[in-house]
Amino acid sequence: MTDILTLVFRTFLSQTDVKKELTVLSPSASTCSTLLVGDSRISRSVLLLAAVTAASETDMRVMFFTQTQIQSLPVALQKCNTSLSPESLKKIKFSYPRTVEELLQQVASLHESTNTSPTPPSLIIVDRLEGYLCGPGGGSHSGFHPGEQSCAAHLSALLCDSAAFLTQLLRQRCPSSAPCRIIASFQSEVDTGQAGGEASATDPILDVLDRYFQVRCTLDRDRSYEAAAAGLQEVWNIYLSGTGITEASSTKDCEDRPAIAQEWQLLISSDGLMEFKLA
């Protein structure tokens, strides 16, 4: 599922990397789900970049679920030179379920909208899973019980089943259609300080989500002296990992093909502009 994210990284590529030849990973039927793990503010911006890029660059229809209203697009989108147009934005449908029950109901009814829409969505995005999976007490994951883990599994399984069903519909219309993809974000309160973005302690909810999402995209704030000396507002390291990356990498046709980039950096300038570069 990293093909959409890699397309985002390429579209908003840093000027220092524009001459580098990058490989976009083509997903297999089993690698269609990505979990974006990290700061919810940055994750939402990346999800919006993914939604708009998919709609404008690949003509995908996008279903975007989030609890809070989208007030504005990221500055990177407002200043970008991509083919952003009102017509491409119309391909993105935003929905605002407040509770996990409402989200489950809306995901389960995705197939019903295909009766009135000529084309089913090719990309399903869920912003801030932790907001749906947290109990009434608020934002701490330390109080999760097996019931919440079961809910995470139920929601993840429903998302995967819905994507599989929509994939069938897409391929009935066009046999060469790519599978319906899923991107969701999740902010864990467990520290992700180890190299490569692997959690230094176990988050039971994240463990459950990893069973269903084949690719994990981890955002890790870079607070090094070099990052501060660059004069940027923020620098984030991005790590791609998971079984989806492993499976796709093992299916390369030949050894001389460019390697799939698994580490990137997100550079955020003082005016909010976002750029990506190879780490």
Give a description of the structure:
The protein is an alpha/beta fold and 279 residues long. The chain is globular and about 50 Å long. The chain has a 9-stranded mixed sheet with strand order 3-2-4-5-1-6-7-8-9, sandwiched between helices. The protein contains 11 helices and 9 strands.
Radius of gyration, taken over Cα atoms and rounded to an integer in Å: 18 Å
Q: What is the H/E order?
A: HEHEHHEHHEHHEHEHEHEE
User: Structural class of the secondary structure composition?
Assistant: alpha/beta
Report the β-strand fraction as a percent range: 15-25%
Q: Figure out the total of helices.
A: 11
> Average pLDDT, to the nearest integer?
80
Strand order of the largest sheet: 3-2-4-5-1-6-7-8-9
| Morphology call | globular
Our measurement of the CA-to-CA distance between the termini, rounded to an integer number of angstroms, reads 20 Å
